[in-house]
């Protein structure tokens, strides 16, 4: 009794009640706010550098980065584009999670079936990548038919030959948590539709890899590129696989899922680093930092006027020290303005590093937009 009493009395002193997580955050709010501000500033600088690097004009970075107020607006737009990018990338993962959730009898069955479902989707991805690489002359319709048939065949084979998929489907159909029992074939059909949707949605990360490619179109390079594209499609499903494959309570599975999401993003950016350039290029267009609309400018920058090539620019002298030019804006950040000739308006992102040197760098105060 004495020992028990001593233990009971010692417990509160040795194990004080911990503060709630909200109280801990509020207690250190100043440091957290400072760290968030620092992170936002670094993210703004990094994203601005990514854009100047993407268009081949790193020389613009230092002058543009001095404008702190514009940097906040720029960071907001890049954040929105990044969220949109992640939502598009996550569409395949959401559909795979929908397929797994159809097997709702028990987490043990979902954990048992997730490998089979991932293999089925991977077969569809491999078919898509192989056809793009070795049958590029096929039309979109025939590629879609082939991917449909391969996914259907893989689903059927795994259902009949792999008990890790067959048993969860049968038990989930005959012993559902809610509702009446259904036919395993009906459940398998809806499962196939969700898996087919996952394969189709996987095209988005692959397309981003193809758009971000900057190398030469040699046979070896194209083969390596398609391998990276297929790996990126599978990589987008990693968080779902971790969530359903992990053991433990729901909180631990979510923690592992988020950690795998961050890891997948890091690996994706290593495989396709130019993706950051695509995101910042889209953000620049959305906020008006880049504008493909050809406009008339009254240029009064004397240093630039003396270097303009009349064969490249359509010049119309107005008075001494000024000229009217037709151009579009590739970079406009604060007082920094980069104007390009009309002949470059259809230039793709991957070609800008070789062509942006033909654009003129001036100040926004020395290049006034003329009314239409």
Automatic annotation (TrEMBL):
Keyword terms, alphabetized: Membrane, Transmembrane, Transmembrane helix
Residue intervals passing through the bilayer: 26-51, 83-105, 117-136, 142-161, 182-204, 224-244, 256-284
Record protein name field: MFS family permease
Highest taxon, organism lineage: Bacteria
Organism of derivation: Phytopseudomonas flavescens
InterPro entries: MFS_trans_sf
SUPFAM superfamilies attached to this UniProt entry: MFS general substrate transporter
């Amino acid at each position: 009794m004495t020992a028990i009493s001593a233990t009971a009395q010692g417990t509160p002193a040795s194990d004080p009640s911990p503060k709630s997580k909200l109280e801990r955050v509020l207690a250190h709010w100043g440091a957290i706010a400072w760290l968030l501000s620092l992170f936002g500033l670094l993210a703004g600088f990094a994203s601005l550098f990514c854009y100047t690097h993407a268009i081949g004009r790193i020389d613009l970075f230092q002058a543009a980065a001095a404008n702190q107020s514009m940097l906040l607006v720029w960071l907001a737009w890049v954040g929105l584009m990044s969220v949109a990018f992640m939502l598009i990338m996550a569409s395949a993962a959401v559909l795979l999670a929908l397929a797994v959730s159809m097997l709702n009898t028990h987490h043990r069955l979902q954990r048992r079936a997730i490998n089979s479902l991932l293999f089925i989707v991977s077969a569809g991805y491999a078919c898509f990548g192989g056809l793009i690489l070795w049958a590029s002359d096929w039309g979109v319709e025939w590629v879609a038919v082939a991917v449909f048939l391969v996914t259907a065949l893989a689903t059927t084979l795994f259902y009949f030959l792999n008990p890790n998929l067959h048993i969860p489907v049968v038990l989930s159909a005959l012993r559902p948590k809610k509702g009446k029992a259904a036919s395993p074939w009906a459940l398998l059909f809806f499962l196939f539709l969700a898996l087919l949707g996952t394969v189709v949605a996987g095209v988005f990360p692959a397309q981003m890899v193809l758009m971000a490619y900057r190398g030469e179109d040699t046979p070896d390079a194209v083969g390596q590129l398609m391998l990276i594209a297929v790996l990126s499609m599978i990589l987008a499903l990693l968080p779902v696989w971790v969530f359903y494959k992990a053991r433990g309570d729901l909180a631990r599975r979510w923690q592992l899922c988020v950690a795998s999401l961050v890891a997948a993003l890091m690996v994706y950016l290593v495989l396709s680093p130019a993706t950051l350039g695509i995101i910042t290029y889209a953000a620049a267009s959305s906020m008006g930092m880049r504008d493909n609309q050809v406009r008339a400018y009254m240029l009064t920058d004397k240093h630039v006027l003396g270097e303009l090539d009349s064969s490249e620019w359509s010049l119309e002298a107005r008075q001494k020290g000024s000229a009217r030019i037709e151009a579009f804006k590739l970079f406009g950040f604060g007082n920094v303005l980069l104007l390009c000739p009309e002949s470059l308006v259809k230039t793709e992102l991957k070609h800008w590093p070789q062509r942006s040197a033909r654009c003129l760098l001036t100040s926004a105060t020395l290049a006034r937009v003329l009314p239409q």
